[in-house]
## 1
Amino acid sequence: MPFVTSHMSISLDGFVAGPDQSEDNPIGVDGIKLHRWHLNDPKHPIDEAFTQRLLGPRGAYIMGRNMFGPVRGEWGNSDWRGWWGPEPPYHAPVFVLTHHPHDAIEMEGGTVFNFVDSFDAALAAATKAAGDRPIDVAGGASAVRQAFRAGCLNELVLDIIPVVLGSGERMFDSVSDLNAEPVEVATSPLATHIVYRIN
Amino acid sequence: MPFVTSHMSISLDGFVAGPDQSEDNPIGVDGIKLHRWHLNDPKHPIDEAFTQRLLGPRGAYIMGRNMFGPVRGEWGNSDWRGWWGPEPPYHAPVFVLTHHPHDAIEMEGGTVFNFVDSFDAALAAATKAAGDRPIDVAGGASAVRQAFRAGCLNELVLDIIPVVLGSGERMFDSVSDLNAEPVEVATSPLATHIVYRIN
């Protein structure tokens, strides 16, 4: 099996997205507050190092449908191609979890969005595609919870953001039997980065 | 004003105590999992350093009633004197928040439990008692939330424990406008300690 990792930014009260996600607010109201550490220019050197880690080369990605886009239910005539413009930052196959069939979408720079109907199918396809490079479970909360349930995660990197969102999407709801050990930590004023080894 | 600090151990899903607190389970079911880092013997050197910080000399403490003991409602004939035996680890005045009057209790080693009926009254009395030494808001979650609302906290130390409790008492519920900056961080396998300056 390839090494499976996930990297999520989370508020002090446990949210990885704000409420009311929409096309205008892809990570929900105030969700952007969780991502200033890697959107700032210039970045703090610690944040720069963890941004590089987040963007590090992967063999494949697994992503929830809500992270791919705002379309819900049937795809219909939607020509949605992701939030990231013509050349997404993935440069590898991305397996999007959806019960609604969709043809693969080939983007510039090596990113190909593939649509699969279960986490297990995504993991199998990602494993085949990744070779000996890592697989990244890119989010959102539900995809990471499915990775916990599948018992496939080797590493979780959390960026703990010193904000309280109050509502939104909690990451650890219904996760049980977590066996995690912090092995590395560093902080900037905007985020405390913790690397967990998952056993 | 004296420097006001608080030091809390919190699960990855945001709980500082488990559910069903009782005399047998003072910090709720599985709540003990949040405190292994400072109960272990021997302790990891990082955990030892933060234990010393937790036990550091204070001029006064503020504590919620549920942290003082399991008695609810009227005190009646209760002779409860805290969880900590004849010589509690505080060695200073402790102001316990309760709407039910109770005479002060003098313990060995300089700890005196005083009972006051509001956070503001506790803060005023603690300020008077502390002189130029720090005041510690010892917990639980409700007392710390009241400290946030009063705007009196200068520092919050969180021990992030790599466990998921699933239910219990959440610390940040209804806290808004948190303006916190991480200024120091260190980790052991059992806990990641983050020192926040509160602005």
## 2
Amino acid sequence: MAMNSQILLARRPQGAPVAEDFRLVETPLPEPGPGEVLVRHRFLSLDPYQRGRMDDAKSYAKPVAVGGVMECQAVGQVAASRDPAFKEGDWVLGGFGWQGFSARPAKALIALDPKEAPPSTALGVLGMPGLTAWVGLEDIGQPKVGETVVVSAASGAVGQVVGQLAKIRGARVVGIAGGGAKCAFVTDTLGFDAAVDHRGDLDAQLDAACPEGVDVYWENVGGAVQAAVFPRFRDFGRMVMCGMVAQYNTASGAAAAGAPAGPNLGPVVRKRLRIQGFIVNDTGWPRYGQFRAEMLGHIAAGRMVWREDVAQGLEAAPAAFIGMLAGRNFGKQLVSLP
Amino acid sequence: MAMNSQILLARRPQGAPVAEDFRLVETPLPEPGPGEVLVRHRFLSLDPYQRGRMDDAKSYAKPVAVGGVMECQAVGQVAASRDPAFKEGDWVLGGFGWQGFSARPAKALIALDPKEAPPSTALGVLGMPGLTAWVGLEDIGQPKVGETVVVSAASGAVGQVVGQLAKIRGARVVGIAGGGAKCAFVTDTLGFDAAVDHRGDLDAQLDAACPEGVDVYWENVGGAVQAAVFPRFRDFGRMVMCGMVAQYNTASGAAAAGAPAGPNLGPVVRKRLRIQGFIVNDTGWPRYGQFRAEMLGHIAAGRMVWREDVAQGLEAAPAAFIGMLAGRNFGKQLVSLP
């Protein structure tokens, strides 16, 4: 009998996830029912939000059950179809989970055209991370020509798109990343105006990179980076709160006991700052068509590039996820399945 | 020779202002030139923002010079006019300072009609504090029917208007004030749904007053009140940052050394919060006509009341100002001049 490999949440992590929090199991291949499609997964998307799903805490989405398959978006190819909308070999996108196969209702799948863009981009630059970048800039960041935009986790899935979109809007863009290779990528490949290595002296580098202060800060990380950028806001600055991955491993990623204090908010009044959080699922998907059309135009014009970090094989997923939370990925983290 | 009493900034305060930071002097009565008007001040407005003007720190407005007259808005009556637009006895509004008289260009004065509303309201419910409340709710707070709005410094000049406007919009309004008399005023006179005494157990009272959490928090104070309200935000909550009077006496009211830490911002992402500061002078005055028309309607309909705390005589101004920063005023703080 054909089998399906799955990675389950073995237990809820205490702080940073470790290998023992996951379990690889073999289960029978699912059988598609009428109107369903069996999908062979080709790329799994690993994203920081999945850390939140591992905790049993009140949040904007239900947690993964202990013993349940870890959640993720994935792209794959139809292996067997019981719906006329799909045939074997078609590329599809959906919420397929950390596993090799899944059987899903055809109407829950989004068809992908591999001639338009590589299918893996549906998980990155043309997918949720790209849409996240676009929505956050459209709705909150709103960078203007000549403004200074600082992007944390600049070489990551969201950060690369944020910075390139801000450049397209005419802003000066400074990317914060960890280490020389990522910083070189940020300036040389992504075309940002400057890079700041958060492993070095943040204040000195930010002084040099942002001599007139910061108009927009794209917050992916929290912690020391946030503390260094916050005092540099100019009047009417905007802080786009996309995530604070530096504290996702603290209790529920929240202001619970143990979470570090934040900045004193006095400057929010004096400088008329706007600090706003958002979740792409709230308002993003109804605007996906507009986003995609713009992005395909940028890609065709050579204004938008991307980098993927591809782990090989399902069994590599836990270590890749753990590494991503520690900043060891270099680009959008994917897992490639054979 | 007729003389003018003035209160000067004698020196920059270190922390909370003390009486010695001010100096009362007698100077010759100013002489209006052509096109100017001599105004006899009747009411001076004392407002928390004036504390910021006493520091020599970068802010949205220039500081008062040491030896200069303390700034404030005031209403008064024309004592002598060298401009055809005004005649003796006319009521006017302007930025007249902590003094008994001033000579100003006629075009810098705003005429008041005492039959429409008591002139002192031009410094409160119909003036800058009222406009502040209106702008902050229009642009940031945007309370909806059935939402819970928490207002700090609820019996103060801005807070009273915020809560009443939020009630008019159909929100449930909880006012935070200091002591039983102010709390009774908040519920019995202003008509808020509940009052919380910040001198008591904040958490227990907020639990009781906001069982479903907070949708809009109007921030006038900072400190312990902010820390108690912040964790209670519901998803999509808005924090209208109007002021943080609890720390105006720390170095430049800023996140400078010594300012207390703020809340960890993790919940801003998870709950999609918006924290935004504003200054009424940025965008408020071009909309003054709309604000005033609405407010006169509310007043005529009995939906808008106000309370003033009136100190008697210019020499009482420093103590009244010091007391206001400590929360000892009860209502909009004015100084009445004979």
